[in-house]
Structure formats: structure tokens, C-alpha cells
């Protein structure tokens, strides 16, 4: 059983934070403990201090869109991650400026997001005289309508010159633009891709995909090899048990096989599909990402507004679900029912509903929001089979088992 | 007795926040409940939610310098103060763009600080598509070496066109650049001035000064008028008690007097000096502000590093106070002893030491920091008479009685 991936919601509120819910941010901790952060609302570093997340493991940051409640915490987080506070008016007087005049091969932090992100970070760091003690890089995911720009022009102090603008492919995706290799054997273990999701400003969703893993070795293989051990050794297999190790190797050839003296063959078990985690920011229509997000193990989806008559005292008597959905969409957001329908559209196995209640939201409301999402799934499938809805709460981790 | 002014520290940490101390921010609540905020580190709006501070009373924001730990919370606070989240990529599609095409006479929020502040806010709001629902204005305090710029050029959406660049006067001050009038009688009750304080980037300190108040009427005035009431009425004073009301009026002439039939004169008691509160940000040498800050009732002064042998386990055996002070100054900061000496230099009556301990700082350390500050005051004066040292803590208010 491979180790779990942990999804840790750092903030699940939208624009206005409450005492228990901060602005949007979510961490994904890979089995290697490499940590990815999706969106960085104001106060994200404060949340990280309270939660079991190691700052030195944060490697990559992904921004879904540039609304303030998703990025206002980014520059301060970079400052904390890279010893960046308190520069001087004259950069030449700061030792960090000269620490390493030549950039290292690999920057400390890699940041991905829509066009404008690079300029946002440059302005935020420059105008506050923030001199970082280590290097960062920005890769922008460009839409065809984005004006071309040279990413290496006007690099800020400690902005690594390897920054790129990644074009959308003809199918509308940014495929496998970042990858993680397995720390032991060096094969690609995870990749990340992105696609547009509709919102009031340019916005992308991210899909983290684990590579197919070696299949589980049938229980009887060891006993069967053991039974024929001496005969196998005589026919040239010095240590026939080594075959089991070969089957677990990522680069084991598909046709690997061991023929036993009784004429039967032990063959390589088929690879097991890896896990898939889809993280969406704010959206009223994520359909462009469906081809990438199909069969996700976890879908993180917002649900900003919900129709909760009898439960939400702000519901007017004449209000209908349709009116709430209409209004929610017009602001670029979703209802729990929309989130549930989308989970069905991608055949997600589990669905994690990043729902937002009013300040001091009662658990009742959260449960009801979950039921709304579940209801639209059940309407589509006729059953709740295969669906788990979690209303995310700041700091409550979700384990994605291998 | 006039109502208290309340000083509420919102954040007392420096660059790296802890669970109990946030980045720099401080509120001053005037008797009229008008609220001023000095510096806005990341997460200030989160602190305000926990503390008894009314967002709708926040009128003016003063920035001491543009380091990130003093301004990273400014754009998100503006968004929350003025309904600013979630704009669209096309501003014309947002109803707030058209709400009030003509700016109102007075913007909702006025912001003051060193050059660069206007551009910082513009960049932060523009690149995050933040469309505010109300107007703000930025007034920059310009040093003579600051490049001239037109404050009304390139105004951002809802940036009020009344923004100014305020030049330093020949004495090196920005005097009385903002004022508050008394809600009842309309006379100027408070003014604010600024001067440079030395730090690693351009930095100013602020001095809030209350106008002299009418003096207290001597206890025997009422009885003496009463004794001669009829004689006074005969000589033309229809209601001689009215004289007491005149003496309490802010615009009472200095030579106001009532001659009693026994030949004695009741004269206007001398005005009482108003309160004075000096708020400094980060500094290693605030001496340019001394002429403005003299006789402050409260001085808010940082003390980033302290020499605490035997108490701070990080103290090396060979360390000396002089070495700590030297290192602290080289980074643009102060020790508690420097803060205490400065309190003496301005003859402050009370001193509020905005001291910063390490994460989870024990109360012992805070007390010792206070003692360091007190020690340097006592060395200078030979007595602790007239000094009160408070080590500020987030959310613990300090009342400045009238």
C-alpha cells in the first residue's frame, strides 16, 4: 500500500474571512512530503503555523486566479519562505543582493498561475523593498488572447531567469507542465496539468495525476517460486525470488515472466492506476477541464451560495433554487448542486465540497450543503454508491489512500 | 473629564508573526470613536475581527514605511472596508464601476504614507481585479529627494482625484496635514503631524496632538456668582450663570471676565494642554521627530532586539549589550534601552514599549525588556518618577485618560 497523499484545507472562506475560516488556500502533501500549495489568501502563513505543515517542504505554489482573496498572502508567504523581510532602500547595501550573484540551477520556489501573476509578485516585492534570501521563479499559463511578453525581462532581485510562459495546447490544456520523480528510483511519480475553468476573471483548475503503479503481486507467486526453487536454480535462476522484486520495479518490462518447471508462467500483474486529485478555484462552469479531471479520486470544488430554506434565516419566502443558482452563476460561482453535478460529470469517486457557510456557520448548514451536493449526484446516478461528500474545514486533513 | 483615547495594538510582532503576535498594526480610537490605523501588516483585518474595533469607524490609515510586514494587509483591508472583492476582468461589466461616476466630495478612506504607497495600492488592486465599492485617496509625505509626480495621473478605479503629495517643510516636518473637528462644536480637536525617523528605508513617525482644552472652572465661581446674582441682574446680566458656560466654550475669548459687585473679577481659567500620542514604526534613530514629540503622553516605540543574558537562551557567553545595540542599529532597529533613552529625550510622561519577544515569549522576558527601557530612563533622570512602561500585547488596550 503506497503512503497516503494528504489534502489539508488551509482556508475555505471566500472574500471575507471569519474566525474559523480563512481566505482560500489548500495544501497537498505528497508521499515524499513535498508540499504543493494551491492559492494563497491573506493570512495563509498564519494558518500554516497552526497546522502540521512544514514550510521547508513547500516547493511549488499554484494560483487558480488573481482575485485578492486567492493571492493577497502570496508575497508575505514568499518573504517568510525565503527570509525576505526588511530590505534596504538601496539594494546594493543588502548582503542578500550579493549572496549569490549567479542564480542556482534550480530556484527554491516555483510558482504557476495565469498571466499577471509575475507582475503582481514583482510589484509586491519591489515596492515593499523585500529582498529575498533565496530564488523563486514564475511560470505563467497563457491563454491564446494573452499579450506576448518576455518572462526574463525586468526580473526582480532573486527572480530566477528560468521563468516561462506556457502556451495552452490546441485542445485547451496545459499538460504535464510540472512533474515529481520518485525519491528512490527516479521515475516520474506525479505530474500536474491545468485547464480553463470559467469565472469572472481568467481562471484555471489543476489536476494532479499519479503515474500508474506496479500492480500487486498475486499472493501465491512466492509459494509457487519457493516450491520450484531448486529446479529454477538448476536451470540458471541463481535467486529466483528476485523475480518478485523485478515485478515491483517501476521500469519492469510489460512482458516480464518466469516460466516454472511445471509449465505455468508467472507474469507481470497489470499496473494499477494512480490517484488523481482535481483542485478548482472559484468557478461557475468548470466543464473545459472535464477531459483532464475524469475519474478523479478527489474533486475540490467551491460552493459559495446555497439555497437553504428553513435553515438559512436570510432566505426570502419567494426565493427559489433556480433564482439562487442564477445569481450565483452571474457572480462566477457555484451552488452545492452544481458541484455535485460536476462531480458526476467527471465520474469522481469521492467529492470534496469546499463549501462556505456564513460566519459561525452551524454544522447543520454544512451538512445540508453536503446533502444538496449529494442530491444532484443521486438524481444523475440513481444511487449514492461511490460518492463521499466532505464539507472542507480549515485545518481538517483529508487522506487520499493509495 | 474628557473621554479617553484608546490605543489598541493590533499587531506587535515584526517580520515573522507568532500565534499571539501579528505583524505591525495599531489602532487609535478618538473620543468621537473615529478610528485611525497605523500600519497594516498581513492579517490585520483578521485581528480587527477579534477585537472591539468597528470597521465602519476606520477613517484614516497612516503608514510609517513600506516594508511588507507593515503594508501587506493594506489592500485586503481596503477591499473589506469598501466591499471590494471579486471584480471582473472587464471593469465595465462591474456595476460598481458605474455606481457613482462622479466622485463624492469626501472619499471614504484617507491613506497617508511615504512615496511609493500610491503605486503599491494601485498595483495591488489593479492586478487582482479588485473593484472597490467606495472611494479612497492617498496622500504621500514626500521627502525633498523624492522624484516629483502627479498624484492625480493614472488614478485607479475609485481612487479619489483629491490625492496630494505633501512636501516636507524647511524644518523637516509635515505639520498638521490632517485634522479632526469636535463633533459638537466644530472646532479642531485633534491634528496629526509627521517627521522622519531613521530606518533602512524612508520612514516617518506620527504625532497626534489634541488641541488645548478649556480649563477647569474654579470650584468657588458658581457660589460667588450666586451670592451676587441679584446685584448682577440689576446691572444688566440677565442670567449671570451663563458666564460659566461661556468659559467652557472652545471659542471663549482669553480676556473673558465677570466683575462682581464686591470688586473682584472672575476670569477665564487657563487652557489645559491636550493629550499627545507619538506612534513610531521601525527605527534606529527617531531624533528628527523630537521637536514634534516632546511631552508626549504616550510614546509607541519598537524594541526589536534585547540583551537578556541569563534569560534568553540564545545569548552567547561573550555577548555584550553594546554588541547587541550595534547589531540592532545596523538593521535599522532599536533595543529597549534605546527606546527608554528616546522617551527621556522627549520628556514623555508615559512610555509604551512596543516590544517584541521571541515566539511564545515568556512574560518574564517582557518584564525584563520593560526593565531595560526603564533602566535607561532612570539613568538619565535618577528616578522612575513620571514613567510607566507597558510592553504592548496584541489586543490589550491602553487608555489615555483626558
Structural summary, described in words:
The structure is a homodimer. Chain A has about 400 residues and is α/β, with parallel strands linked by helices. The first copy, chain A, has 3 domains: about 5-210, Ribonuclease Z/Hydroxyacylglutathione hydrolase-like (Metallo-beta-lactamase, Chain A, 4-Layer Sandwich); about 220-265, no CATH class; about 295-395, no CATH class. Helix content of chain A is about 25%, strand content about 25%. Chain A is built from 12 helices and 17 strands. Chain A has an 8-stranded mixed β-sheet with strand order 7-6-5-4-3-2-1-17. A 7-stranded mixed β-sheet of chain A has the order 8-9-10-13-14-15-16, covered by helices on one side. Chain A has a two-stranded antiparallel ribbon with strand order 11-12. In chain A, helix 11 runs parallel beside helix 12 (about 365-380). Chain A is globular.
Overall CATH class of the largest domain in chain A: Alpha Beta
Largest sheet of chain A: 8 strands, mixed
Head-to-tail CA distance between termini of chain A = 6 Å
What is the number of E strands of chain A?
Answer: 17
User: What is the count of helical runs of chain A?
Assistant: 12
